Amino acid sequence: xxxxxxxxxxxxxxxxxxxxxxxxxxxxxxxxxxxxxxxxxxxxxxxxxxxxxxxxxxxxxxxxxxxxxxxxxxxxxxxxxxxxxxxxxxxxxxxxxxxxxxxxxxxxxxxxxxxxxxxxxxxxxxxxxxxxxxxxxxxxxxxxxxxxxxxxxxxxxxxxxxxxxxxxxxxxxxxxxxxxxxxxxxxxxxxxxxxxxxxxxxxxxxxxxxxxxxxxxxxxxxxxxxxxxxxxxxxxxxxxxxxxxxxxxxxxxxxxxxxxxxxxxxxxxxxxxxxxxxxxxxxxxxxxxxxxxxxxxxxxxxxxxxxxxxxxxxxxxxxxxxxxxxxxxxxxxxxxxxxxxxxxxxxxxxxxxxxxxx
Length: 358
Description:
This protein is an alpha/beta fold. 45% of the residues lie in helices and 19% in strands. The protein has helices spanning 20-32, 36-49, 54-76, 79-85, 141-151, 170-184, 186-189, 203-217, 247-263, 283-286, 303-316, 330-334, 336-339, 342-357, and strands at 88-97, 103-112, 121-127, 154-159, 191-201, 226-230, 292-299, 319-329. Strands 1-2-4-3-5-6-7-8 form an eight-stranded mixed beta sheet, sandwiched between helices. The mean pLDDT is 97.
């Protein structure tokens, strides 16, 4: 495959601290999580992550899911997101799969009313966050409504199956099957087949990157114009020496070890499997990836893993941009006030305009 050509649009100066609006949002998040139920859930999550038995892991999963539910409720009440929903036509369809029993993957579709009836829309196929163990596609609807309107595209929100009920690689395969369905039915869905983007954040970033591995393995990356995993889980760095980690990586590594154990069918047998750890994909597979933009935060808990993958993709000729927001943590990147701000919203709009619409 030919090397992709970056437009080198983004080069935020990194200063090793949060400033301005980012610092204010970070302070708000810390205040929310410093007392009451959020603080108790956080304390319990950290406590349970240090235990290595099935009962503790089950309780940890419940706490993670409760935490994610709280965030989803907060996001759904944001007035600008609610206003955006008024200008969206929401529909859905299901994609039948058979890789893990017979299962129909739900796909929610958010079409700006100004794009209804057109046959040349850009598609944004999305995998929601939640560590691949929590959340649902519908949790992301408020933000995707906003994004679809902001960037003039149709969002396809994939409700892939979660771990530990569904083990790797079935979560990735659910998303992959939806990607293939949209590509094969572009005309029926009102999509320009030359303007298809796949994306995901956090655990959904893992699912998206895993789908990139499958597309590369099957010589199908030409179907996708752009892949955009954001703050993604991509490898087993959490199992390494915490002494070499950043503060945020060190604070989260015990939880992430347990999350990966929930996702894996067999950690030992899948240790080198790029469908579990996409960051371990071979150079040959990376060279067949779709054109990729990685989106990260300077203080994200996955920054080291993502930066390593970005460097490998650049060398393989498949990296368009590695966008790193200064002073931004994982929580800040998911916070509505940051998403609606110029740094994030302006960047995403520019990415879609320059790399998907053109």
